Amino acid sequence: MSREGFVIASIDYVKSFDAPLKAIAFTPVLLPVTNSINEDFSPEGDVNLAGRLYLLYRDTDIDLLFLTDGSRSGRIGLDFSRNLATNLEIHGELAWIHDQARFILGEGEAINIGRQDNTSYLLGIRYLSAQDTTYILEYYHNGSGLSKNEAERFFNLLDSAGSTGEVAAFEKARNIAGQADFFTPNYMRDYLHLRVSQKEPLDIVYLSADITSIINLQDHSYSLVPGVNYTGFNNIELRLRAALNQGAPHSEFGEKLVENRIELRVRYFF
């Protein structure tokens, strides 16, 4: 089952203080991997140690996370959030992965497999206006993402497969895409994320509206997703949104299978 989760052992330790360091919480986790337990976590068996340390220092929430080398390469994470004012917040995330495998499409359609340490991070700001409008602006750097040249080589490979029409060429392109994480969101390196949301626009109770944009800073393609949400019916939620993908040929959002779409979702709670 895809949602059954993993078998783990963990404990929680929580303590509060009357000091600038107001609270601390520590959660160590053991995650075993064998042929019959947590085998979908990794094909390599091991007993994996991970943990989360939470700190509340003055008005700043801080999380420190770690996973030791085992079934997967070791990694360390950090995130923080701080209110600069009642309506202004800054936040950030940092992730460092040790000796991460990376599939690179080189010249001549050759696949090179390398291992290197990768660092990813996110910096953002959230602002709430007097009109109850929330603005979120974030910059995201994906340390293991593809360069513009690597993405261009893959799109050229697709063009070549399309011109020949050979099944083997398409299969090769599909395999390369899977190895190089082309099927994952935000597979390149640098992005800007903007979201604006408004509660009860035009004073319509139970209605909310939002618009979200993700901009690829390498190829300048982008997606724009406006939407409205209505919860005025008992146990029913209505969600209407559109998705617009714009970009030049051989860009991330310009090469999406669906350029534009509109969808209506109805959720019933019981």
Give the count of helical stretches.
2
Query: Mind summarizing the main beta sheet?
Result: 14 strands, antiparallel
Return the CATH architecture of the largest domain: Beta Barrel
Order of helices and strands: EEEEEEEEEHHEEEEE
Strand content: over 45%
Based on CA atoms alone, the radius of gyration comes out at 22 Å
How many distinct beta strands?
A: 14
Low-confidence segments, given as residue ranges, are none
Shape: globular
- Class by SSE composition: mainly beta
Helicity level:
10-25%
Mean pLDDT: 89
Overall description:
- The structure is a single chain.
- With 270 residues, the chain is mainly β.
- It folds into 2 domains: 72 residues, no CATH class; 196 residues, Porin (Beta Barrel), CATH 2.40.160.
- Helices cover 11% and strands 54% of the residues.
- The chain is built from 2 helices and 14 strands.
- Strands 1, 2, 3, 4, 5, 6, 7, 8, 9, 10, 11, 12, 13 and 14 form a 14-stranded antiparallel beta sheet that branches.
- Strand 12 and strand 13 form a beta hairpin.
- The chain is globular and about 65 Å long.
- The two termini are 23 Å apart.
- The model has no long low-confidence stretch (mean pLDDT 89).
Concise summary:
The chain is mainly beta. 11% of the residues lie in helices and 54% in strands.
Write the layout of secondary structure elements.
Blueprint: E1 9-10, E2 13-16, E3 21-33, E4 46-57, E5 60-67, E6 75-85, E7 88-105, E8 111-128, E9 133-141, H1 148-164, H2 167-179, E10 190-199, E11 207-216, E12 222-233, E13 236-246, E14 260-268
Antiparallel strand pairs: 1-3, 2-3, 3-4, 4-5, 5-6, 6-7, 7-8, 8-9, 9-10, 10-11, 11-12, 12-13, 13-14
